[in-house]
Every structure is written in structure tokens, then in C-alpha cells.
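Handout, page 2. Input:
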Amino acid sequence: MALRDDMAKYWKYAVVFALMVGVPLAGSKLYTRSHHLRFVPEALNVTNVLYVSEQSWGFGPGGNETGLLAFQLPISVAKQLKTRGTDYLENLPHNARQGWQGRYTDWHKTPLTTKDGWGSLSYEGRKYWTSPGIGDYLNKYGFPVPLKKEWEDMVNRALSTPGSYYAYGRIGLILIIPDELSVIYAYNG
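Output:
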């Protein structure tokens, strides 16, 4: 009987401990997901976060953060983009929430051009521009973030070939890749 009472007591402690750890952890995960989704225009109806690679060096003034977030683009939105292109994006309704996150104007078609200013310049008797990679953007201020190769390759393909769309926000770059049903948000600084 004493063993049964001891086991019941330990189970109670285990449940209390699980709740003390599990509830804040679940709340933190939900907050982080909500925070990440804020960077995408609400009208794109994005709900799934597919990939996250972020790093932070310090905080507050003088701190640096770099990251790449990938989201799943709904098929219906991808179809609209393929039909209407930048016109669709320029006419998205404004976000209901306040703040700068998820607000973009001046949409462009890929591939990127030299005027975006983050391709590589090489000097071998003359200047020439090479196609930018997402690493050029993320490492602009010397704070790179590691990316899984498949995500880095997909983003670089999208940046250097026609068929995708991008815009700059107050902070960061958003890239919509209809053929991959993906939305990428990259930031540096």
C-alpha cells in the first residue's frame, strides 16, 4: 500500500512538473510562430511556417540579427500570382494590424538586377556583376546565418530566374516563389 501511495505522489509531481515546463514552452512556440507570421502580408493567407534559421548577436542598439524564414504559399494565391503578377501584389489590401511588419510596396519580378546593390562585384581588369545569392544579402553586415542547402539553393534559383516576386520592407526582403509554393522573408542587420 505504501508503494502505491508513493507512486501516486510521484505521478502528481511529474504532472505538476510537466505542466510547469510544458505550458510556458507551448506558449513560447505559439508566440514565436505568430511573430514570424507578422512579416508576411495577411492577404497572402499564409499559415504554415516551413523553415526558420535565425541568429542574434547582442540585443538593443548595436545588436545584430540575421535570419531567413520560409512559409507555405497557398495554391490559390500562387495561381493568382501566375495570372496577375505584380498587379496582384500591388493591390493587396493593407494589413489590419498596426506596425510595419508585413507591409511591402514597389514589387519587382525576378531575377534581381544590379540596382538592388547586393550582388558580387569582381575586379579582374574590369568590373562585372555576378548573380546575387541569398548569402550576399544575409551576410551584408558580416553576420551570416547557416542555411540548409536545399533552402539556400531554392532561394538562389528564384532570385536568379524569372517567375518570382520580391519587395523590400522597412526591415528585410520578402520573396514569393509561386512555383515552389513558398514565401521567403530574409533580414539582416
